[in-house]
Amino acid sequence: MNLYTAPDPKEVERVNVEPVNARRNRRPLYAARKKVFPKRAEGRFRRFKWIVMLITLGIYYLAPWIRWDRGPYAPDQAILVDLASKRFFFFFIEIWPQEFYYVAGLLVMAGFGLFLVTSAVGRAWCGYACPQTVWVDLFLVVERAIEGDRNARMKLDAGPWSFDKIRKRVLKHSIWLVIGVATGGAWIFYFADAPTLLHSLLAGEAPAVAYATVAILASTTYVLGGLMREQVCTYMCPWPRIQGAMLDENSLVVTYNDWRGEQRSRHAKKAQAMGEVVGDCVDCNACVAVCPMGIDIRDGQQMECITCALCIDACDGVMDKLGKPRGLIAYATLSEYSANMALATDGGRTAVQPARVRNADGTFVDAVRHFNWRIIFRPRVVFYAVVWSAIGLAMLAHLSMRERLELNVLHDRNPQYVLESDGSIRNGYTLRILNMVPKPRKIELRLIGMEDATMRIPEFGVKDTRSFIVDASPDVANTLKVFVTRKQTGVAVNEFLFSVEDADHSDRATYRAAFNAPGEVK
């Protein structure tokens, strides 16, 4: 018998819901990019960006060509990552693979430096010195030189394909590719002698990996700096999403001061004649036109803003023309902005009232807060600065006091010892004496401890002694086969020291080694 009874449809609850992800409602995962045509800006921040761009590009492209004399046994390129010999040269500093902790220290310093800058002045790194920003600026210089400023570029982009448009586009993209190739070429020059590698590249004799590296970096520079631009900062870079944790109410960020800009009016005189409240903003959109990210700073702080401050230059230029004080858009802190906003709105009880922040002559009242440089030196920023400096000083101190002579010892595993005909016991060792200076040195190798033991180096002869003078080649690990011999004493395992010291006693290294004998050897 069927015991199932269908429920009464009138008793079933009906839920009013829309399937937002139904096929008929589905949207494309990614929206098409809307091109940004930033207008050329003029002002102190734009000049500062030019200076930073020239310095950073100059360092990047010219650094591999700087020479530094290290003598006949080391390369004379000032900055070189020598993969063949596994060393990094930076002027008078030489870093070996086992000293990778210096590189780790530099990375930690870079992290704290980024925290320090962001806490103090927001995304100043992004706006001025980030490689993406620098190369986008360079590409925009080329674009403006060929296609004109904003209006001309927009007109060209919207117009039909013609000979003139094709000519300009081909020329622009060709120069971009040349810049990309130069970028990749400059990068590989850091990993080999620059003049030699350049000759090999031009002659078609360079390693395949060199050409592949140039091709990869050229294409990424062309795509990221020329085609994607602001999308890299918005979607690919993680820092916009992290920076919020680094900012506080006293961090400097580019800010639209709506406490003096609202209400906006394009016809201020007419509005004032009609008794309307009018702020300093004339809604000219100059700040939007120059923004390389295509945002409106008047909408408030946004993830996309890289604080390049070009909107400040554009707005200051408009204020100068109108005879009004600069700073409608300015670097400001949240605490400063909030205090001025509370003053202009009577603590948020009214709309912005210009009369509350201005005197009759148009100057600001004394209660208006202005930026004070001392606010930068607050505990959080000082903490980052102290940590950053401490790491740097510790690395410099360790660098200045480090030994340039190292000793590594490997005991023979098979056999662990040899019984000789006279009853003595011999152990074999492989010694690696690392001479970390670019010149040959005479190194004294000695046995310390186990007074009845002697050692023999076959390549030096058959004489047994407790010390040898070793000619250590420069900047290499000198490998020696050493046999240590002693009479049987009944003790299964003994320890002693291998010691190496250079002739002028400036560097010394020791290694504690075990001497195996019959009995308890495992």
Task: Give an overview of the whole structure.
By secondary structure, this protein is of the alpha+beta class. The chain has 16 helices and 14 strands. The protein has helices at residues 44-62, 101-121, 124-129, 131-147, 150-158, 163-188, 194-203, 208-228, 230-236, 239-246, 258-261, 268-273, 286-290, 310-322, 334-344, 379-401, and strands spanning 79-82, 87-90, 93-95, 253-256, 329-332, 405-411, 418-419, 425-435, 441-448, 454-456, 467-472, 476-486, 493-502, 508-516. The strands form four sheets. Strands 6, 7, 8, 10 and 12 form a five-stranded antiparallel beta sheet that branches. A four-stranded antiparallel beta sheet has the order 11-9-13-14, with no helix packed on it. It has a three-stranded antiparallel beta sheet with strand order 1-2-3, with no helix packed on it. Strand 13 (493-502) and strand 14 (508-516) form a beta hairpin. The mean pLDDT is 88.
Which key terms come to mind for this protein?
16 helices, 14 strands, four-stranded antiparallel β-sheet, alpha+beta, 16% strand, five-stranded antiparallel β-sheet
What's the structural blueprint in terms of helices and strands?
Elements: H1 44-62, E1 79-82, E2 87-90, E3 93-95, H2 101-121, H3 124-129, H4 131-147, H5 150-158, H6 163-188, H7 194-203, H8 208-228, H9 230-236, H10 239-246, E4 253-256, H11 258-261, H12 268-273, H13 286-290, H14 310-322, E5 329-332, H15 334-344, H16 379-401, E6 405-411, E7 418-419, E8 425-435, E9 441-448, E10 454-456, E11 467-472, E12 476-486, E13 493-502, E14 508-516
Helix pairs in contact: 1-4, 2-16, 4-6, 4-8, 6-8
